[in-house]
Structure formats: structure tokens, C-alpha cells
Amino acid sequence: MKRSEVPVKETWDLSLIYKNPEDAWKDLEEAVSIAGKVEKEYKGNLKSAKNIVDCMHLCERIDELTYRAGNYFSLDMETDYSNTEAVAKCTKAMSMANDASAKVSFVNSELVRAADSELEEAVKTGGTVSHRIEEIIRWKPYLLSTETEKALADLADFMNTPYNVYNQAKLSDMRFDNFTVNGKEYPLGYALFEDEYEYEKDTDVRRAAFRNFSDKIKQYENVTATAYNAYVSRDKKLADIRGFKDVFDYLLFNEEITRDLYDRQIDVIMEKLAPHMRKYANLIKKVYKLDKMTYADLKLSVDPDFDPRVTMEEAEKYLTDGLSVMGEDYVEMIRKAFKERWIDYATNDGKCTGGFCASPYGVPASFILLSWQNRMADVFTLAHELGHAGHFKLCNNAQGVYNTDVPRYYVEAPSTINELILTGYLEKTNPDLRFKRWVLGCTVGKTYYHNFVTHLLEAAYQREVYKIIDAGGSVQAETLSKIYKDVLTKFWGDTVELTEGAELTWMRQPHYYMGLYSYSYSASLTIATKMSKRIFNEGEAAVKDWKKAMTAGCTVTPLEFAQMAGADISTDGPLLEAIEYVGSMIDEMCEITDKLGF
């Protein structure tokens, strides 16, 4: 459907942010005005603790205004990239936000020149900006001159061009032709393929959809590769300019984790999880009686005839009942999400693929995007995004806007834990073996496959790309396809035939334009696995600890956050425990399949 044809009930209500666009423009104008005031009154005058704190509170207000207004316009664009008016408004809003940011870009480089005694006093008296001041001090070795920082801030619009090109090519320019299987014609689209055909139990239709989808995106491989090369090259240049040892240190610096933790997450899963997932792939092959197991078959449900369709009304009940262990306040948030139209679940042309949740600071609502296909997999996706909503509801209420910039290493923990809690609930509702296998299949095939396999393989691929870039090289479509195919071959071995087009999976992930985001899904799920077991065993006491951790925002490091959840990620223990858990679920599914006889 075109966006204009979508029923209103299937869309989110952006009036929960602003009643009308004029109010959003007023906030952006106020942000630019405050930025001008900061530049006029504080440039060259950040020497006393009082001035530092006063200036930082004004900058805090700028961030709050630009983030809220930016979300308002970008969320409208995300639902339809073919809407040129929405794209233009978003571009203008981002330009105004960047203008405000450029005016105050002097703050960081000037603040760190203040006397240590004044900085210490500013941290003590800063309140909601204290942690931000500490972070700026931590950045001191890598900050540049005021003029250089201003120039980089002025170029922010252009630095985002690679991601904008990627989205326009993918969501606006690509037009998929129908395809025919056994005399029947089928429609095809980006979201339709990823949300529907990858799970299609008819092998002929599923594999034909994969072939036709791959043929189409291949036509855009060079422009996509050019955009991606520009993005990763930008990261390398910024790392060099700021004096980091390499591009990895630069990208991991904000996340406050070491290269060892990053590499371990990728290397251990690539080695230890692969045997379990190959066993899972063989189980799918056995259940479906496939002639061979191909890359196009990996997203199949473990039980082709036991994948009940779920309406949004039924999803609400699953989620309110399944996540009730999180407390009545959490359940009430879920009810509001449905009642107040926080969720945009329509499937329309030009809409962003996948799912996400945005929680603008100062707004009593979150905004969840997905394309609903009436599958239980969609319920898990919704549980995941509501986990983000619950996290930032607690975090935003407890912290200033600066302290809500949560490190990526654990930002996905509150979302993935919801999927695990939902799994535990479903297991308790029905003792039937087939139902149990289905629930385990949802957990392995959705939660862990998505976060421990899909995103992890992307992270392994991404690491190889950045190695090339860090050595001064560049990447083209042919190189990217080879890297991705090598990663897939290493993980799946000869268990899975890599259908032509599998190597193009690198074209499908927007997270590549967000630093080293992909690896963090498995890191977060490692913490979530540990915490979910505590909740199942300890109940309310563990939930209380979890909520306390979620209120902390970025005031705690990943190590500290994990400790609050009872996981010591300074060792590989929690990661190995999570992998063992996945393996045990696959073993149990195999045993149930043997008992059931199919």
C-alpha cells in the first residue's frame, strides 16, 4: 500500500510529541537562539566552575530541544522515504540542529583548559550535567582546537550523506517486480521479503523470492558500496584527526569497553556457537524434508504447521500477561502503547524496514516502528521494542538528557530480556510437547538467531572491513561480497549451501552506518540471558535490581551495568553460559522432534 492508504489505527500518533509542526519548528528556533547566546556569552569565558555549569545547562537544553524536534520530523520520514516533503522537512530540521551544535562546538575544547580545581568544582555542583563534564574531560586527549571542532560540526550534515544515500537507494529508488512460481504471481518488496517470504514454508516460493530479491538489490551494489566506503573512510579520518591509535579505539571509546571485549564477543561466538547452529540448520532441513539446506531456508519456523497467526489484540494480551513479572507500572506502559498509538505497524511502500523504538526526552510516550505480519515472531519483535520503551521511560524520568546516551554495549539488554521473559511465560502456559518445541523455536530462531547469529555475523564482516580501512585501503562491492561470503562459510561450514545472493546480505543492514553497533546485540543479550535467569529464580527482588540498572543511563560503564545484573563480563563466563543455553534449547528441540516423529 501507499502510505496514504494505510488505516490510521495502524500508524503512530506523532501529535504526542507536538500538536503540530509549527511547535516543532519553534523548538528548533529556540535551540538555535540559545546556541547563539552560549556562543556570545561563554566563548573564551569558560574558566570558572559557575560559568562551566551554567553554560552546560544551556547546552543540555539545546540537546533536549533538537532531539525532540528531530525525532518528530525523522519519525515521519521513516514511515515513507518516498514522501519528498517529509524528507525535506527532516533535512531542514537536521540542518538547524547541526547549526546549533556548530555554534556551541567550542565548549568542549575550551572547557578542558580550565583549572583542575574549577573542573572538580563543576563536577561537584553540576547536577544533571556533571557526568557530561566528566566525559568531556575523558575526551581531553582527543579534542582539537576550537576552530577545528567548529569546522567538523559545520560539516555534520555532509558527514551523514552516506547513510542518507543508502536509505534513499534502498527505500525510495528500489522497485521490485512481481515474480511467478508454478503459474501464480506474487508481489515483492523489501519489507515484504524480510518480514514474510523469508519465513514462507513453501520452498519453491521462498527460494524464488530470495532469488528475485537478490537480483534486484544486486543492481544497486555499487552505489551502496560507494556510500558505505565513504562512511567507514570518514570514521578512519576522524580517528586519525583526533589522534586515536586506530579506528577501533576511536569507535569503542564512547562505549567505554576495550578492544579485547569487542574481539572476544565476535571470536567466541564464531567458534563456540557455530556447531550448535549447524545442528539447528540440520533440524530445519529434517523437519521440512528439504533436498538441501540453503541460506534462503535459515529463517524458517521449526514447525511449519504450528505457527499461529496473531492479531494485534492478541499480541497485547500476550505481552501484558507475559511481561507482568516486570510489575504493574510496566504493564500499564504496554497498555498505553496500544491505546495511545505508540506503534506504527502498517506495511506500506517506502517504509523503513526492520524495527526500532524512539523515546524522545521529555515526551511521555515512545514510538515503535515495525511491519506487522500477524506472526508470533512479530510479538517477539514488539516485546523487544517495548523493552527499549520501558528502559528509557525509567532512564528519562531519572536522568537529565545528557545521561540518557546509553552505551551500545548494553543498550539492547532491556529489549532482548523481554523476549526471554516472554519465552518463559509461554513455556508455562502449555505442557504440550509440540507447543514447547514451538516456543523454543521462537527463542532460538528469533531472539538468539537475530542477535547471536545475524548481527554477530554482520559484526564479524564489519570488523574485516574496518581492518582494510584502518590499513589505508578502500572497499568496493566485490570486496564486500567476498568478505561476507567468507564469514558465512566460516560459520556455517558445509552444512548450509550459500545460495547465490547470500553474499549480498551486507547491503541490507542500516546498523553499519552506526559505528560498531552490530556486535553489541550479542553483548547485550549475554547480559540479558544472565538477568532473565535471575528474574525467573528470584522474582521481584531481581526485577528491582534490573529496574535500578535501567535508571542509571550512561552514568555507569558496561562493566558496572552488567555487575548490577549479576554478570561479570570481565570474563567470558556469561558469554559461554549463554551459548550453552542456546545449545541446550536446540538439543531439546531435536529430542522433541524425535519423540513427535517429525
Keywords:
mainly alpha; 598 residues; 26 helices; Helix Hairpins; globular; two-stranded antiparallel sheet; Butyryl-CoA Dehydrogenase, subunit A, domain 3; 5 strands; 3-stranded mixed β-sheet; 3 domains; Neurolysin, domain 3
Please characterize this protein's 3D structure:
The chain is mainly α. It has three domains: 3-159, Butyryl-CoA Dehydrogenase, subunit A, domain 3; 175-219, Helix Hairpins; 248-340 and 375-596, Oligoendopeptidase f, C-terminal domain (Neurolysin, domain 3, Orthogonal Bundle). It has 26 helices and five strands. The chain has helices at 21-42, 49-78, 84-103, 106-111, 116-125, 130-138, 146-154, 156-159, 161-173, 190-195, 203-218, 221-242, 247-253, 259-272, 274-288, 312-322, 328-339, 376-398, 408-411, 413-429, 433-470, 477-492, 520-538, 540-551, 558-564, 573-596; strands at 179-181, 184-186, 343-344, 356-358, 367-369. The strands form two sheets. The protein has a three-stranded mixed sheet, covered by helices on one side. The protein has a two-stranded antiparallel sheet with strand order 1-2. β1 (179-181) and β2 form a beta hairpin. The longest helix is centred in the C-terminal third of the chain and has 38 residues, at 433-470. The protein starts with 20 loop residues before the first helix and ends with a helix.
